Amino acid sequence: MNVEKLVVYRVESPIVADNLHIGDAINIPTKCDNLVESPTKAASEDFFETIRLNSFNHLPSRLSSLFVFPREDAVVELWVSLNSRFKVCKYALLSLELTGELFWFDEDLFTKAGVPCYHEQIESLATKYWGSASCSPSGFVLPEGLFRGVAIIKQIELRTYP
Known about the structure:
By secondary structure, this protein is of the alpha+beta class. The chain has helices at residues 14-17, 39-55, 73-83, 107-113, 119-131, and strands at residues 2-12, 25-26, 66-68, 89-106, 143-161. The longest helix is centred in the first third of the chain and has 17 residues, at 39-55.
């Protein structure tokens, strides 16, 4: 879906945010550098990418997209809680204005693929994930947007979870 001047959220580490300023354009990653790396997560990314290339190649790759969230604090807090493993963590919440292409997916399906499960289960989750592509974040357990285009920082807010 094409968007113009749509405002969304993005979570960054405070260290990354120290080098960002309001009005800056965010660089779209060329690899999976905005994800926490673990062998299981890396394997899931590879598998999801294979399914995308084979069956959903019209959709943007997770490996070269900017991950964003709808402007809902509850969604951001759920994502931070899952990725911090419920430990205290500091993060920067960026408000971004997007112009480009944005698709929404249910990250809960990707998260489930990161736990030990059979090949058939991961394939099913990947197919459901890519098949869930939507122009709206509504109805997902944990909506995440994959964005390609120009993202301008409108606000930077430092937060602590919990």
